[in-house]
Amino acid sequence: MNAYDIIIRPIITEKSMADGAYRKYTFEVDKNANKFQIREAVEKAFPGTKVASVNTMHVRGQMRRQGRTQGYTKSWKKAIVTLTEDSKTIEFFEGMM
Domain locations in the chain? Predict the structure, then answer.
């Protein structure tokens, strides 16, 4: 798999932007990717970064209603990537903080 097949999109929320000060970045990742694949994908997609740890979690879909019909949004996987102290930061998040 390609690095961009594993990393789907960055998660931009207030909490994830606040974690940027602690060198933690949040991404939506492929549901079948494991921590080792996520680590390699981040290091390939953002050259100069070194990953210290990866925390993953499954996010369940939420119930949504529209009139009489109801259903669930899709479930997805979230990864919080912590970089080492000597690592280069991810420039994508720097402009948003």
Answer: 3-86
Nearest to 81 by CA among 63, 42, 54, 45: 54
| Cα four-point dihedral sign 32, 36, 37, 41 | positive
Report the alpha-carbon distance of residue 78 to residue 7 in Å, rounded. 10
pTM of the full predicted structure? 0.89
Amino acid at site 97: M
What is the second-level CATH architecture of the domain 3-86?
2-Layer Sandwich (3.30)
Q: Give CA–CA dist 95/97, Å, rounded.
A: 6
Residue 94: what pLDDT?
67
Question: Residue 12 contacts by C-beta under 8 Å, 6 or more apart in sequence?
Answer: 96
Give the count of alpha carbons within 13 A of 81, CB side only.
Answer: 28
